[in-house]
Amino acid sequence: MDLISAFNVTKGDLVSVVGSGGKTTLITELARQLTSMGLKVLSTSTTNAQKPTPHQTEKLLIAEEEPDLLAAIRNHFRTCRHLTVVGQYLRKDKLKGLDPESVCTLYGHHLADVILVHADGARKKSFKAPREDEPILPPCSTHCIIVVGSDIIGKALNEENVHRPERVTELTSLQPGQPITPETVAQVINHPRAYFRKVPPGCQLILYLSKVRDSQRRQFVEEIQAKVDRTKITKVLGGDLLWRQD
User: Fold this and answer.
1) Angle at which helices 182-190 and 165-172 pack, to 10 degrees?
2) Domain-embedded: residue 39
3) How many domains does the chain have?
4) Which label site among 80, 145, 146, 180 has the fewest CB atoms less than 10 Å from its CB?
5) Which domain covers residue 174, as residue numbers?
6) Does residue 127 form part of some domain?
């Protein structure tokens, strides 16, 4: 899937990825496609994150350990195309991201051609409803991609399947144990207390349904597309990046 064309990403953009169902996979593949075009990509996070693997980035920089972070970024971009910058180590395998203002500061220095931001957490669940303080979007975002795993349709609303199931109930009235439907997904996306209130003015808002592997899930995408508020959602897309490890 040509993600760059699908999401209309160009040089100078800052793309924030939120939601659930495969954000890391999407960011990794976006970075791969952008660097294959010769562009420099800086990826970061505004949440806590797992330490990236060598497959996911060429170089990891810890801001806390760099006396001159901007100089370090410029230096490493001389020899690599994809650089990941985070704030500090929380433990050996877990990292603390940057605050949104710091991300926008980096963006303002034009150090990379495109910046990709992991701006939400979902504990590897396919669906979530954000809390009042989520997602953590940099105000300089040019794109916001909401990711939902299409495999959630038909599964029960519980903690095993959904991140913050109580929040889904609060926003949709779906009760614990009831099956999640395309209508449920659309209700969360459309709710004024979910994602819309966090999106900065002028930012392209895109809904991406991941794990679309058969005709039934393609039908789910069409149903959700028909139900979300298209005055706010620029595009609704479906795809499958299974061959990339999340």
Assistant:
1) 80
2) yes
3) 1
4) 80
5) 3-238
6) yes
Answer whether residue 243 is part of any domain: no
| CATH at residue 221 | 3.40.50
Q: Is residue 246 assigned to a domain?
A: no
* Type of residue found at 213: R
Query: Would you report the helix, strand and coil content of the chain in percent, each value rounded to 5?
Result: 30, 25, 45
Prediction pTM value: 0.95
With a CB cutoff of 8 Å and minimum separation 6, the contacts of 241 are: 1, 22, 25, 26, 29, 210
Q: Residue 240 burial by CB count (10 A; 0-12/13-18/19+): exposed, middle or buried?
A: middle
Which contacts qualify for 211-220: CB closer than 8 Å, 24 or more apart? 211/21, 211/22, 211/126, 211/149, 211/150, 211/151, 211/240, 211/242, 212/150, 212/238, 212/239, 212/240, 213/240, 213/242, 217/150, 217/151, 217/153, 220/150, 220/153, 220/182
DSSP single-letter state for residue 4: H
Distance in angstroms (rounded) separating the CA atoms of residues 166 and 154: 17
Residue 92: count other Cβ atoms within 10 Å of its Cβ: 7
User: What separation in angstroms does the CA of 82 have from each of 43, 90, 201?
Assistant: 7, 23, 28
